[in-house]
Structures are given as structure tokens and as C-alpha cells.
Amino acid sequence: MTKTQVPVAIDVEAELEKIAKRYNAAGGVGINVLNLIGGQAENLLERLPAKVRQQLEATTVRALSHAMTAAHKSRGAVPDQASWLNSAVSAAMGAAGGAGGLPTALAELPVTTTLLLRVIEGVAVEYDFDPELESVRFDCVQVFSAAGPLSDDDGADLAFLTTRLALSGKAVQAIIHKVAPRLAVVMGQKLAAQTVPVLGAVAGAATNYAYTSYYQNMAHVHFGLRKLAIEADVRPEDLNKRLIVKMRSLKIV
Fold first, then answer.
1. Helix segments in 144-200, DSSP class H
2. pLDDT score recorded for residue 78
3. How far is CA 19 from CA 198, 223, 228, 250, in A?
4. Is residue 195 within 8 Å of residue 52, measured between CB atoms?
5. I need a labelling partner for 245 at 20 to 30 A (CA). Which of 56, 121, 132, 168 fits?
6. Which of 152, 135, 150, 168 is nearest to 236 (CA)?
7. What is the domain count for the chain?
8. Whose CA is closest to 207, among 223, 228, 190, 186?
9. What is the pLDDT confidence band of residue 165, given thresholds at 50, 70 and 90?
10. Residue 145 falls within a domain, yes or no?
């Protein structure tokens, strides 16, 4: 006779502390990149030509549209990789993009965006979410709403964790255009960092390493909260508020 299994009680506060620490760790590499290139995040965009700045959002929309298709299709051919390998591949791509200055960095942008989205999808799978589901793929794109590793963000705005879009025929373009403006700023900083004179390939490798590490950690925050909300039967919006309180108590924000 088998005993009835009693569900294990979830320590929500302990789980939130782990997620808060993961959030805090996300931006650490970005500081090292800024130190490497000797700049500040807020003036990186000024290094880009005006024409590039004006077209940045449209370029980001195209990169995201391509990434959503390519990242998903690649799942059938290439399995999810270890985080260190993702970072290594991304760094190599960034080095190649930075070696040729702005033209090669722009050409590398959609490829890096695809890799980042694929890495985010891999994290979703770790938390038992199925990227075959359209809603999960939208969640993956939504992770890009988080400020990038070179951005000055105090972490108080975590609205991206609970934003939802109604699924419809236009939902794909809706979420891309919703995320693109903020991601355009983030990717603009990356492009500018890659065009730093002399450093070139080194800055490209460092920025890509930072971006891969950052979005991978943010995906853990995003899907960690999603899973916790399901298992603890707590509304995502309430967990979001409790996470902010937890981060403040830990002096993360």
C-alpha cells in the first residue's frame, strides 16, 4: 500500500530572494564592459551617426521579426546549449562584428538578436514552459523589455514581468513593436560600444558576452516568477510587487 504524497510547501519568500539575487547579478558584467570601453551608457548613443540613430528602431523591428522566426526554427536542428557555450559563441560573434566597425556591427545585430532569443527560449524550457506555445514565445520576446546591461536602471520597473497581450493574428507584430523602442536604445548602446576606436573586436566580444549573460539572467527572473506564481498559486502581479519589496530589503534597488 503506497502512501499518499503530500505536496511540498513552497517558501515563496525564499524563492523570491533567489530571484532577486539573480536580478542583481544580471547587470554586473555590464559595469565591466563600461570600464573596458571607458564610457558612460547615457552618452554611448551619441557616438553613432545621426542616420543610424534615426533608423535604429526600424532596424530593431526587422531584427526582432527575423529572430522570432529563426530562433524558433533552429530548435529542431540545434539543441539548447550550456550557458558558457552560449556566451562564448556570442562573444565570438561580437568580436567579428566589432572588428569591422559600424558596418559589420550592424550586419551582426540580427544574428546576435536571434541568438539571444534562442538563449531565452532555452531558459523557458528549463522552467518547463513549452516554446512551441505562442504565448511562451511572446513571453520570450517580452524579456527584451528589460533594460540592457549597459543601461542605468534601478530595477524598480519590472512591469515587463506581468505584461500580457491578447493573442490574435496581429499579436506577433504588436509585441515586436511594443518591445522594439526600448530594445533599440539597448542595441544602440551595444553598436556604439563596438565602434570604439582601437578596441573594436575586444569591445564587440565584451558587449556580446555582457548581453548574453544579462538576458539569460533576466529570462531566469521572468520564468522563475512565472513558475513560482503557478506553483504557489499567487497572482504574477502580486509576486512582482513582493519581488520589488524583497529587492529593496536586500538593497538591490
1. 171-194
2. 67
3. 38, 10, 10, 12
4. no
5. 121
6. 135
7. 1
8. 190
9. very low
10. yes
Residue type at 17?
Answer: E
- Kindly tell me the burial class for residue 197, based on how many C-beta atoms sit within 10 Å of its own C-beta (0-12, 13-18, 19 or more): exposed
247: in domain: no
pTM value?
0.80
Residue 23 lies in a domain: no
DSSP annotation string for 209-229? HHHHHHHHHHHHHHHHHHHHH
What SS3 string covers 73-128? HHCCCCCCCCHHHHHHHHHHHHHHHHHCCHHHHHHHHHHHHHHHHHHHHHHHHHCC
C-alpha cell at 97: 562584428
Tell me if 19 is assigned to some domain. no
* Structural domain range at position 177: 29-40+48-222
What average pLDDT score do residues 63-79 get? Answer: 77
User: In 27-82, where does DSSP find H-type helix?
Assistant: 28-37, 41-44, 50-74
Grid cell listed for 125 = 524550457
Q: Output 252 or 8, whichever has higher pLDDT.
A: 252
